[in-house]
Amino acid sequence: MSDTSIKATTFYGNLVGNVSTADQVKTVSAADNNANYYVTFVDANNGSVTSETVYTDDGIYYNPGTNRLTTQHATFTGDVTVTGDLSVNGGDVTTSASTFNLINANATNINFGGAATALVMGASTGITTVSNNLTVAGDIRVNGNDIQASDGNTNITLTSNTLTTFAGDIRVNGNDIQASDGNTNISMTSNTLTEVKGDLQITGNNIKSSTGATAITLAANDVTVADDLTVNGNLYVNRERGTGQTMQLRRNRQKIH
After folding, report:
1. Does residue 165 fall inside a structural domain?
2. What's this model's pTM, rounded to 2 decimal places?
3. Would 174 be classed as within a structural domain?
């Protein structure tokens, strides 16, 4: 026996004091106690049996009643698998990588931003690619004024609400253009017939030819044809004679009553 150690084959009675080292520590289950238990750790990763001081920290603890481990900060150097829901209450999911894949496999139905009233995607320059069909329940606003083809050429140019310019042909494979209620407004039959189901209102007042020149001008109830007008069938003014209606041919200065 000395000041730092005591040896005996058998002890009788209680042995009071502290030991500086131990090979084993007895534990007991906390069951489902709804309380915080602090994680213990040492400050060295020893390669051989070494005595260490055990520490705790109030920034990391475990509650066996809720099965929840709480810490202020965590860094994972490998993959992390979450079998339940992942809640991010801090407002940001960030990455230092230049390429980031988000839910890019397995999920075939993805609900995203369902409560968002303002949704911003992408930088002010670059390309946003939608790989398949796109359905928009509301209006589409194009701030850049141009709608481009896949080769980067402009197909449609929008100028406020006064002019919409199509650079090439318009092809509708389904033959029908429908309103928001699903009713057909315009029907097309090959190149022989284009049928407008309701009224046709031209707010800009001008109908232009492929050269951009104005061919027909509409002003209130007047219609002005800028050049030749060819009528292959009969031409009627109000479909009845003697109604007081007049059609004026400006080039020849003639009036038909």
Report:
1. no
2. 0.52
3. no
